[in-house]
Amino acid sequence: MAKTYDYLFKLLLIGDSGVGKTCVLFRFSDDSFNNSFISTIGIDFKIRTIELDGKKIKLQIWDTAGQERFRTITTAYYRGAMGIILVYDITNERSFENIKNWIRNIEEHAASDVERMIIGNKCDIEERREVSRDRGEQLAIEYGTKFLETSAKANLNIDEAFFTLARDIKSKMEQNEMRAGGSVSNTGRVNVGGSGTQKKSFFSNWSCNLL
Amino acid sequence: MDEKLPESVDVVVLGTGLPEAILASACARAGLSVLHLDRNEYYGGDWSSFTMSMVHEVTENQVKKLDSSEISKLSELLTENEQLIELGNREIVENIEMTWIPRGKDEEKPMKTQLEEASQMRRFSIDLVPKILLSKGAMVQTLCDSQVSHYAEFKLVNRQLCPTETPEAGITLNPVPCSKGEIFQSNALSILEKRALMKFITFCTQWSTKDTEEGRKLLAEHADRPFSEFLEQMGVGKTLQSFIINTIGILQQRPTAMTGMLASCQFMDSVGHFGPSPFLFPLYGCGELSQCFCRLAAVFGSLYCLGRPVQAIVKKDGKITAVIANGDRVNCRYIVMSPRFVPETVPASSTLKIERIVYATDKSIKEAEKEQLTLLNLASLRPDAAVSRLVEVGFEACTAPKGHFLVHATGTQEGETSVKTIAEKIFEKNEVEPYWKMSFTANSMKFDTAGAENVVVAPPVDANLHYASVVEECRQLFCTTWPELDFLPRAMKKEEEEEEEPETEEIAEN
Q: Which residues form a coiled coil (chain A) (predicted)?
């Protein structure tokens, strides 16, 4: 069966509880928004395929499953992530300050070459702003990441954020591919969930052979 | 920590080791409200994997006993007729010793410094309980049904070695062929032996379709006699006998004809499922699996809180009514706890001591062109012991920096020769010089009860090669405690995922 995409990127959303990670995710994947705050239950990851420079890119975006509430994100969450969006809430100073802690977490557990981006969410609520745009930009410069202010509710800059991150990952990947001489080797990992990997059993092999 | 713990939940789970994680995910999946607590700042408890820079934490989980003023303070949280019971902190992992071994070739710069300077320390994933998965075993089935398989990746254990020892040559490590192709290419067997092996495999194929009773009948008087006698009678020569017994021996020590046949069928059933080898190893180490089940639990609403001093439980009329953590009272209907937490007043029904040594090396015990993930059954060198094996994992399984390996020795303590002695003999023979080692004793403690009817004690760490018994015990505990609920039932596929399904397969194949 033909592949329906050229690249698959695993992306993560990280940030304090209540900054709107799940809303950002839903806005991007389903173009929907729900105002009521419910701690994340039952959201694992969402998928949206986008097109960049004629290439189809499947984005698999993982939510924290609420494990950020007591800073108990599993280290396993970071495995294989190619891009991470750090989210804070512009109406919550604390969530902005904590971005530093989250970055430390990423440096400890994620791949060292993971692409990062900082977004200040809820920028539609100007009257309750606690963190100026300027400070957000400064922080991003400090960590050498891109920066956007977004609103999942007003649908501001959400697509831009994901497209920017995806573009950065894509160009890095293409550079690496060129350096590796056209193909990035795969190390033969097994995904036990995908039925496609399953081969015939030993028995069926043998009986075939014996017949 | 700005958030408070909930006042009341259906189930409090204490400890984030694999069995507790499986049980927490099963509870959350079944719709129970779950609070999952751990005293450590990390996941996995006594089943955890550590980086080289964090591994010292394994020695740091001391818990102070409550003094009388603390007890009287906590007692203020009790109501009438309630009794405070202090939770235990059993020594599941004890006698821990860790050393960097100075080596001549690192004279200029010790390996520790080399690794630190190249920031490679965090590339290690050092398992406390290294195990493998049978491709068609209970764990793989549970991972697939629950879709925890989304969170983990695996590598095939692509080399099985079987040692032989002679006074002249010392210990030689012989590759054991698993698949049909490997058998035909192997030089270790003659044409005649290969033919005998084919005959044996054909017999297994037929035997595997029979039920237990009929299978037993086919083995006739040999059923409970040693497997070797039965193989002899099938016309299998001595070399091939030891070959077969060594290969399946990793699943079944000292097999009788009956248990040997069962193990052979189990082995062959898993061969070819994901590749030539029947065994899988989790990428980033076995500690990942606990975390993956915790994520499933979290996706279904379980609340996670690590690094909390979990101090006591509250008992009333023979039942536990609450847990006290960090001075907060959380009411609950059930408690699931790892053996570590069982109150000191409750005696263990049995304790098995497991000897564990982990070595870090920069050379494989048997060098090959490509890096291999190796399983080595030491049973023939320690015939008295129930368990003795080595597992060598490296960069490909994301458990060590490139060019480095971890060698895990696991053994029960019967007999005169320790697994340590044998492992070190093998190193010497193959000119492998470990630069780091950690040794400890793991106590596999079983409890029939934890002193109250609504407390479930999770299965202990064990020395089994694979996960079937852990998964099975968790299932049984869950089904006995909550007979009306399903244990990790097959997940309903969302529409979106169905669309995606063929693509996922593509990824796996590429």
A: none
